[in-house]
Amino acid sequence: MLGNWFKRRAQLASIKAVTADIERFILSLRGQSDEENGMLVAIAAIVRVNLRADNLLPDEALGIGTPLAETAQAEVQLRMSQLVQQFQKHNQLSDAAAAMVWLHSLRAFRYPEVRPLGRQMWGELGRGFPHIFDAFRLIEEATGKPPPAGALQASQFIPVGLEPFEPSPRPLSG
Q: Rounded to whole angstroms, how far apart are CA atoms 97 and 119?
């Protein structure tokens, strides 16, 4: 009985930390332009395609097909967290932000309490969808190579269950 109490306390602490982290990320997305969010979605798609090719981010972890066992889902989330830290350590901040999209999506799947925040995140990212083609063009110009095969299709993906809420009307400036 005491063991369950400690386990639940640890889980609640984890949920609190995850919630604060994703709220900060959503706030940063709100501060970005639609074009900047489009660039983030394009980079996130490239990161996802590359991670899928290396079997580090299986589709099942993002709600496609048969769900992963809880331990496997936790392992994928841990690897994604380590990848974010690695990108940050090497000052690859765009790649880190793109990996955070997937880390926060994984967290939203793992903790139902966080799922509404995952939906808010994807709502903010959705503002960038109309600008994805321009983002891929800019990435190709900057790198001198086309995005990996499947990146454009991957850029249209929103994890099942994290679809954005209906957009709320923006206040009119007067």
A: 17
Task: Note whether 133 and 44 are within 8 A (CB).
Answer: no
Give the start-to-end residue ranges of the domains of the chain. Answer: 2-154
Distance separating alpha carbons of residues 69 and 52, to the nearest angstrom: 18
- The number of angstroms, rounded, from the C-alpha of 55 to the middle of its chain's C-alpha atoms is 17
Cα–Cα distance for residue pair 170/67, rounded to 1 Å? 36
Q: Which residues contact 81 (CB under 8 A, 6 or more apart)?
A: 103
Per-residue pLDDT of the chain (174 residues; tens, 9 = 90+): 666 766 666 777 788 999 999 999 999 999 999 999 999 999 999 999 999 999 999 999 998 777 888 899 999 999 999 999 999 999 999 999 999 999 999 999 888 899 999 999 999 999 999 999 999 999 999 999 999 999 999 999 999 899 998 754 444 443
In 3D, which of 79, 74, 84, 82 has the Cα closest to residue 107?
A: 74
